[in-house]
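Good morning N.,

You mentioned wanting to compare the apo and holo forms, so I went ahead and generated the holo version with uridine-diphosphate-N-acetylglucosamine. This is what I fed in:
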Amino acid sequence: MDKLKIRGGRRLVGEVRISGAKNAALPILAASLLTAGDLVLHNVPELADVRTMLRLLEGMGVRVERSGSDVTLNASNVTSTVAPYELVKTMRASILTLCPLAARFGSATVSLPGGCAIGARPVDQHIKGLRKLGAEVEVEHGYVQARAGRLKGARIVTDMVTVTGTENLLMAAVLAEGRTVIENAAREPEVVDLARCLNAMGAKITGIGTPTLVVDGVESLQGAEYSVVPDRIEAGSFLCAAAATRGDVLVTHCVPSDMEAMLAKLREMGAELEIGADWIRLRQKDRPKPVQIRTAPHPAFPTDMQAQFMAVCTLAVGTSLITETIFENRFMHVPELQRLGARIDIDGHTAAVRGVERLTGADVMATDLRASASLVIAALAAQGESTVDRLYHLDRGYERMAEKLRGLGADLERVHD
Ligand code: UD1
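and this is what came out, ligand included:
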């Protein structure tokens, strides 16, 4: 198992290029199942989760050609509509194959993802919505089994805003007969990116980026060429690393307009920001100021940035309050941050973070993807040496993070056990 050894206390300075968004790439890769034509993708990040999705699709008979961040997929010869437990258990986003398979082949057998470290995370909304579109869906032997003729457009109102739920139902609706309206749709930039890619494939989706998606179903989709949107969470994580180390970092190839809630908080924390069309420069001169953060669906503050901002707050001059409203168990980084000297009290869904002048290096353990980034950020700011264990969490969602940090002057290395 790989670990990251970090000698902290250095300001991060320089320029870093952001990769394509994991959470946009995964549904877009799954969308290849919707057409017999070639889906040619660019800016696909090289990540463990992307490799898992490609393996899953290859197992179904999808032809995959990959060269760096370019991936071409062809699903003209799908031989299986099963997503097996062995792959799904390593990546919940495998559920994104459910609706494309049901819509194009009338059959899908996808292992139920089950819970994960950050919470129960059911997929009931995906199933309810697919049933509304006319599919028969059963959960048996740990698998979601869907059978359908051509799906039929319907009005779907989800009980809560769900990102992959909206994406899955969008991929069902594009091939359904007639009009589907998805109310209470997620507005995350990754949902927008999937919708744009589907339209490039010939789908008819309007209301993109609003809570009401209107889909006029078509009989078939064609191949297309599409470039995945940059990863706002990766960009935000580098900005947090810059803020925590009182650095001066230029983040390039990003979409600042997708990051407004985060940028507002960084400004409140005293960061100086310069923002261009696709770049952000952050300079943090003094200790950060404390802030109040409440996670909520886009365009509010993203739950996927909560842990990284908490790492910055551990060094603030005063007490920050961070409330998590999306996932019930997303404070697992707290005991690990405490090992680095952070002072944090949890009361229900809120963490009170009393800033300290300095963190001190320690051995810590990553518990999930974003928690791992938060520990790396805290360790970069801490005095002395830290080891972040269970690096595979970080590898799921950050492309070459250690290398990129080294490019900003961080003193760190990967070590194999
Ligand atoms: C996606 C992101 C994840 C991010 C999350 C919230 C991907 C691959 N993952 O996860 O990084 O943290 O959005 O922005 O894009 N829920 C139900 N029933 C459902 C669906 C969801 O109860 O059928 C609940 C969940 O348990 C959670 C909330 O709704 O409490 C939001 O979850 P959701 O938006 O679906 O998260 P994911 O799509 O799994």
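The CA atoms of residues 28 and 194 lie 6 Å apart.

Happy to go through it together on a call whenever suits you.

Best,
F.
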